[in-house]
Amino acid sequence: TVEFLFLFLPILLLVFFRIGRYSVRAGAVWLTAGSLVFYAWWNPAYLGLLLASIVFNYTVGYRLAQGDDIVSRRRKWLLAFGVGADLALLGYYKYADFSIGIVNASLGTAYPLAGIVLPLGISFFTFTQIAFLVDAAQGKAKEFNFIHYSLFVTYFPHLIAGPVLHHKEMMPQFTRASTYR
Predict the structure, then answer these.
(1) Run of H or E residues at 93
(2) In whole angstroms, what is the distance from residue 83 CA to residue 21 CA?
(3) Residue 53 contacts residue 126 (beta carbons within 8 Å)
(4) I want to staple 27 with a disulfide (CB 3.0 to 4.6 A). Which of 2, 35, 167, 180 is the partner?
(5) CA 175, CA 23: separation in Å to the nearest integer?
(6) Could you tell me if 70 and 138 are in contact, meaning their C-beta atoms sit under 8 angstroms apart?
């Protein structure tokens, strides 16, 4: 849109590079906030869902990365719980109305559809976070900075159109000072 191209993007980048020159952390916070504004612009009601998903997956990923025994039963259950919760959330938003329609068509019932609006980019941010959980369980996720993790999930150029990113590919970029200049 015109607003994105001539307002949002120039302001976001100008402030990002100005702030980033003095503080990498502040630059990351600014870019994360801008990415959240970008997401909320479409429908602010789903911002809470995105934030809850980030907090949940960060917490589960952090717990998965704790300890020395990577193949422990507890870690497997925690991974299954995290992935299952992510898939349940995705399944609810993508398939609840579809399932009700199938039941109605198959059984001749007239259950009302829930009228669920699919959150923008839910597949991308869900599968990105599932990949993070798997990386954390395998000991591949090394950095657990919440701001960087939030930026990893919400980074506006990939948030709604993909591709699914891996933690190890993005996180080193957030710690390099040259990224912010």
Answers:
(1) helix 73-107
(2) 38
(3) yes
(4) 180
(5) 11
(6) yes
pLDDT tens digits, residue range 34-67? Answer: 999 999 998 999 999 999 999 999 999 999 998 6
Of 36-40, 75-79, 158-162, which range is least confident? 158-162
Kindly list the distances between the CA atom of residue 11 and the CA atoms of 4, 7, 16, 42, in Å, as whole numbers in the listed order.
10, 6, 8, 19
Whose tokens are 């952090």? That residue is 62
Say how many C-beta atoms besides its own lie within 10 A of residue 121's C-beta: 20
Task: For residue 88, give Cα distances in angstroms to 61, 93, 118, 141.
Answer: 17, 9, 14, 24
First to last CA, the chain: 26
Q: Please give the C-alpha separations between residue 106 and each of 93, 98, 109, 145, in angstroms, as whole numbers.
A: 21, 12, 8, 49
The answer to whether residues 130 and 83 touch, using CB atoms and an 8 Å cutoff, is: yes
The pLDDT of residue 69 is: 58
Name the DSSP letter for residue 67: S
Q: Return contacts of 38-46, CB within 8 angstroms, 24+ apart.
A: 38/8, 38/156, 38/159, 39/120, 39/121, 39/154, 39/156, 39/159, 39/160, 41/8, 42/120, 43/117, 43/119, 43/120, 46/119, 46/120
